[in-house]
Amino acid sequence: MPRRLRLKNRKRWIFGAPPAGEITVDEGATAAILERGSSLLPKGIKSVTGNFSRGEVIRICNLEGRDIAHGVSRYNSDALRRIAGHHSQEIDAILGYEYGPVAVHRDDMITR
Q: Any idea where the PUA domain is (predicted)?
């Protein structure tokens, strides 16, 4: 199956899956996601709601509470709470491990 078709099917799954939790992001992260199609970095996370595992679909909301995207989290909810607001380079020092520099990769995200 071509990569483009796999990505399309994955994004369709992300769009339809019920979110296991929610994160609220700042204005900079909102603009990066909506205007530039960027991945979500921990620095832009303001709060984490709910308990979810790595690999589950989560809702991404702006500061006004508007649902701006859904995506697959690279970290569980507890880890995201610990790294929220920190630079990506600090993840390993905070957690003792890392699954990459982003909280949600753009290939695993669909904007609303």
A: 21-104
